[in-house]
Design goal:
8-stranded mixed beta sheet; alpha/beta; 8 strands; 9 helices; Rossmann fold; 19% strand; 41% helix; 253 residues
């Protein structure tokens, strides 16, 4: 991923890409975009690779200060995947964005696992004004049910590279059940929530999004016919997302 700075998360420095709307150094609305968990061979190296281009569009077309970054274990970010680690990274990114841009409001956009964690973190952070989730998971129970198999998968896609990681396998496993997106959606209400899902998603069924919508109670939900897992590359999804963000921006003025 193209980067122009770093976020400090614990002992790790995570590459980020941050762009401001023309003529502004602070006082614009802010948005952070979160990538999904890698699922193909060596896919972790390419996480969020197309996001900087999208951040430029959000800044130039909608006037947002926009930032993306790569979670630990992905892209050029050091470290190894754990769910708690990714939560820590997101919290650090929120602090960084506020410190760097002093936004008038802050929204989170998350794809798949990134969306689920946006829900979990945003629910308990009043600084987050709204969330847009693309193909989010309702839980991580399938990972937790077979944690050693999932750890092997993490190694195969490159998100875990340290041979002796994790030092505490039981704790690493408990984290997979600790963060619950559905109860988080209930806590997040009545703040604005946009849910987008493809009805041909081969990794996460659209029923996961429906669970989140029901828990929230007032979410805007769209299930797109023929759309798959990679919603970021579906122009219909991006059109809905941009329209929603534009309304959020105007409502905040």
């Amino acid at each position: 991923m193209l980067s122009n700075g770093t976020i400090v998360s614990g002992s790790l420095s995570l590459p980020r890409y941050l762009v401001q709307p023309a003529g502004k150094t602070e006082g614009a609305p802010g948005v952070i975009m979160l990538h999904s968990f890698p699922f193909g061979p060596i896919d972790a190296r390419h996480s969020a690779s197309s996001f900087p281009e999208l951040m430029d569009r959000l800044a130039n077309e909608l006037g947002f200060a926009a930032m993306c970054f790569t979670f630990r274990g992905c892209g050029d970010s050091p470290g190894d995947f754990s769910l708690q680690g990714w939560v820590d990274d997101l919290r650090a990114a929120i602090d960084h964005m506020i410190s760097e841009t002093n936004p008038t409001g802050l929204w989170l956009i998350g794809s798949n696992t990134g969306g689920s964690l946006a829900m979990c973190v945003g629910a308990d952070d009043p600084r987050i004004k709204g969330c847009a989730l693309l193909g989010p998971r309702a839980d991580f129970d399938d990972w937790a049910a077979q944690p050693r198999k999932f750890l092997d998968h993490c190694r195969s896609v490159g998100s875990v590279q340290t041979p002796q990681f994790p030092k505490d396998f039981d704790e690493w496993t408990r984290e997979l059940r600790r963060f619950r997106p559905v109860p988080a959606a209930q806590r997040f209400a009545p703040r604005p929530l946009l849910l987008l899902h493809g009805d041909d998603d081969e990794s996460v069924p659209a029923t996961d999004t429906r669970q989140l919508a029901e828990a929230h109670g007032a979410a805007e939900m769209r299930v797109l016919e023929g759309a798959g897992h990679r919603m970021r590359h579906d122009p219909r999804a991006m059109a809905v997302l941009f329209g929603w963000l534009d309304r959020q921006r105007l409502d905040g003025e």
